[in-house]
Amino acid sequence: MKRRLAIILTTVIIGCLLISQGTNFAKPISGTGSDLKTETVSESAQADEQTVVGTATSVDSGKAASIASDMEMAAENEFLILYVNTLTTEIAVKDKRSGAIWYSNPQDREDDSLATGYNKAKLNVQIEISYLDNTGNSLKYDNYTHSVQNEQFVLEKVNGGLNIDYTLGEAKSDIDAIPKYISEERFQTLIIDKLEDAGEKREVEKRFKHNEEEKRYERRDSSLKGVGLKKVTDAFEKAGYNEEQKAIDNAAFGVTAADNLTVKIPLLYRLDGENLKVTIESGSIEYPESLKIQTLSLLPFFGASGLGDEGYTLVPDGSGSLIRFNNEKTYAAPFRKELYGTDSAISQQIRIQNDKAARLPVFGMKYVDRAIVGIIEEGDAVASVEADISGRLNVYNTVSPSFTLRKLEEVTLTNGWRSSTVKKFQTEPFQGDISVRYGFLGAEEASYSGMAAHYRDYLIKQAGLTRLTDEESIPFYAEFIGGIPKKKFFIGIPYNAYESLTTFNQAESVLGQMLDLGIGNIKLRYTGWFNGGINHDLAKSITVDKKLGGSKGLKELKTYADANGISLFPGASFLEAAPQSEGFKKSQASRFITGKLAKVFPYSYADFKEKDDLEPGYVLSPKSIPEVVSGFIDDYEKLQLTGLSLSDLGNKLNSDFNRSHVIDREESKSIMDEQLKRISGSIEEIMLEGGNAYAAPYAEHIVEAPMTSSNFIITDGSVPFFQLVFHGYVNYAGTAWNMADDQDSTYNFLKAIETGSAMNYTWFVADSSVIKMTDFDHLYSADYRLWIEEAAQRYRELNDVLHDVQSQTITDHRELAKGVFQTTFEKGKTIIVNYNDMESSVNGIIVGAKDYWVGGETQR
């Protein structure tokens, strides 16, 4: 009641000021009680009071941009001004350099003829949570419908920003007099039949939804406000409906007092230099224990574009992907992608064939002459990026982050011929902070290339990313496979054996052939060299495999490599324990949400399903990793090796849902970060697979880097955003050319030129027949003899093109025509690649079919 009186009083004061002073007045920030605060608008802010231009949530900076008349300034610094509407809590940010204004919600949303009902109301939202109630129904709360409309928020200006505390839930206790669910029969006999006035009957009926399947009526909470709520409560009272009747209905559908849920969420806005930082302290979110919040969506309409806008959305799918504004692909599912790939502690029986992991926590939206880029700074390990196009639910193109606070798995229970499915939640929700940093780019930076440069600058400042030094030639990445486990038979009795694929002596021989063929700057990744081969025992200690040559053979290979300018990177895995792994105890394993041990079965490359008839490995709990890494490093330092290849620390991220202590992915990420720091402090040069953002700054080399996207239907093409971020700072290569789905060396060669990537091959020396009838028969194309000469020829040509730009950034990448792409390096060198079967003429330059053109400056 005090809150409502304060807001009414504020309105009266503002009205008086408007009458007496016009528009030049001290603008108050609304709150509760005596929390009212005021600040006079600066001259620069007052100068913006012009006509509002634009139809979307950002205003065209090329025109006379002005802030919406119902907003007032909340904070200002050298670069930005933050505004807020104190009645709706929507915000806007003005970039003082370009004049562009970015809104949290569409300013013309009332004119959206497509959005109706809930989708119309959602256009006002800044926060939305999804949860399951006690009966298993999936429901949503949002800060507009369940807080702002009920005047349940406290808004306060602070130094450099704004705090808004939302209370989500029905403020008016009168709604408690109305049942959440009521059966068809009781709704008709107890309510409708007892109302004589037809108007009253209509009022009641339109505020309940008929669920024909459940044979009940469900309360429409969003429509039960103000006058509508009073009409319905009066009607129920007239019909004689009382607490006793409500108790009967609640009991019939399992509704308890806990279903009257209230959620408190603090939202913080801060101007931080050239960026806006938006934060929610998850530990400060308050809600009943019975409420199982699954996800939280943050600023779902910030920067959203409308039907009249041209541009695209950038999403972090694989190397990067674009969704063109208004592309009319409403037949395709909206985009949603979890960051950092799949979690092995979540049961996954089927693997998507072409799914590319999202390695970078970045998204953006580009208009003709301006762009916005979001960096998920905290909570990225539990985050997803969501995007959609106009024409489905509303007329806007959107991109935003969401955060999974509590994971769930479905468990099927059977009893004879009967079965039912129940949902099991992780016992402890995510408690870390959530923050997103928004950057605002002017006309010259408004592209995915500009977004990449913005994120690269962020990594330089925040993660210490450092520039590469010049080298005479580009790297050539070669993986040699040492040994594999193989089942053999003795007089018909099976036993586990070790099969050598590439001994240290054989590796030296192949390296000599590579050097003779002109391959230089070789980065040798040697996998399967210790503790039993490629599926090695737990890596907490090291025993070099004797069948490869033992410690002496490894030392001799290192000596040969050093003498010939070859970098040696023996490989190791830490996050999973292979089947029958020595040194592993089941107490070290992660657990699924169901409480079962997190097993890892081999996948079939034919149908991408688990081979659950084979013996599984186990996901190692993140809490067990430090001990394993420590033991490994102690032994590794004795070998006096200067390089190390990490197959999973920068590639996978797993949880542990052990009920005694849940380790979510964010906590797991912190543990991985500590181990990477420990390893990089002991070993000179690190190579990673995959290249998740939190790990990349520790590496000099990334292999298996994403080169394309997953090509979801809603997207319109892949872009090398990953490469734009890291070129000149980290050496990288994609999937091994001979192991890729497309082994066409021409395509892989052109892709390497376009993206500034190095070559990568996976080889072994043994006859390929030895892998038949093993779990490694997918390595059928890894016989080095099939590839070495072609690889050498391609390397020499690629080196001629790229050797002088490896320490330079890529400043621009763009598509000139369908299948024709242009890459520009820092000092002016330009490459045009034509993937088409016919020659292409662009900007007066003719590029042959499946060929390339090099121009511009070539100096370092």
Number of helices: 16
Distance between the termini: 70 Å
Could you name the ranges where pLDDT drops below 50 across 5 or more consecutive residues? 1-56, 59-64
The major β-sheet equals: 10 strands, antiparallel
Number of strands: 47
Give average pLDDT, whole number.
Answer: 88
Q: Radius of gyration, Cα only, in angstroms?
A: 31 Å
Shape verdict? globular
Helicity level, as a percent range? 10-25%
The helix-and-strand class reads alpha+beta
* Largest sheet strand order: 10-11-15-16-27-22-21-18-19-39
Q: How would you describe the overall organization of this protein?
A:
- The chain is of the alpha+beta class and 860 residues long.
- It is built from 16 helices and 47 strands.
- The strands form eleven sheets. Strands 10-11-15-16-27-22-21-18-19-39 form a ten-stranded antiparallel β-sheet.
- The termini are far apart.
What topology does this entry show?
Layout lengths: L1 H20 L5 E3 L7 E3 L3 H4 L11 E2 L12 E5 L3 E5 L6 E5 L5 E3 L13 H6 L4 E6 L5 E5 L1 H5 L4 E6 L2 E8 L12 E3 H8 L6 H8 L2 E4 L4 E4 L6 H13 L4 H10 L10 E10 L2 E7 L10 E7 L13 E4 L5 E4 L10 E4 L23 E5 L4 E8 L4 E6 L9 E7 L3 E8 L2 E8 L7 E9 L6 H16 L12 E6 L1 E8 L2 E8 L3 H13 L5 E6 L22 H14 L3 E6 L3 E2 L21 E2 L16 E3 L5 H14 L4 E4 L18 H18 L2 E5 L11 E3 L13 E2 L2 H6 L4 E2 L12 H11 L3 E5 L24 H15 L7 E8 L2 E6 L4 E5 L5 E3 L2 E3 L3 E5 L5
Parallel strand pairs: 28-31, 28-41, 31-32, 32-36, 36-37, 37-38, 38-40
Antiparallel strand pairs: 1-2, 3-7, 4-5, 5-6, 6-7, 8-9, 8-17, 10-11, 11-15, 12-14, 13-14, 15-16, 16-27, 17-24, 18-19, 18-21, 19-39, 20-23, 21-22, 22-27, 23-24, 25-26, 29-30, 33-35, 34-35, 42-43, 43-44, 44-47, 45-46
